[in-house]
Hints:
- The protein has helices spanning 42-52, 57-68, 72-88, and strands spanning 9-13, 18-22, 25-29, 35-38, 92-96.
- It is α+β, with helices and mostly antiparallel strands.
- It has a single domain (10-91), classed as Outer Surface Protein A, domain 3 (Alpha-Beta Complex).
- Helix 1 (42-52) packs across helix 2 and helix 2 packs across helix 3 (72-88).
- The longest helix has 17 residues, at 72-88.
- The protein is globular.
- The mean pLDDT is 91.
Amino acid sequence: xxxxxxxxxxxxxxxxxxxxxxxxxxxxxxxxxxxxxxxxxxxxxxxxxxxxxxxxxxxxxxxxxxxxxxxxxxxxxxxxxxxxxxxxxxxxxxxxx
Length: 97
């Protein structure tokens, strides 16, 4: 199993999670019937990129670093923490490359 610091992992929306983007926010219901709301900004940008297929942490960090004028190392650390949290909540799942 990969760890949150492993960048050789791709992420995808969990196959048992249902999601919709409404008004710039993303709403996700997971298989345990939990409801998750991602607010506009970084969280939505990252989720939409994953849903569209940009699913590795380094590419996502590059997206965030460019869009929000933050350093790549800081963006990567934050992205890895965010992705790990979404995996724990069964919104996303990891796929080794």
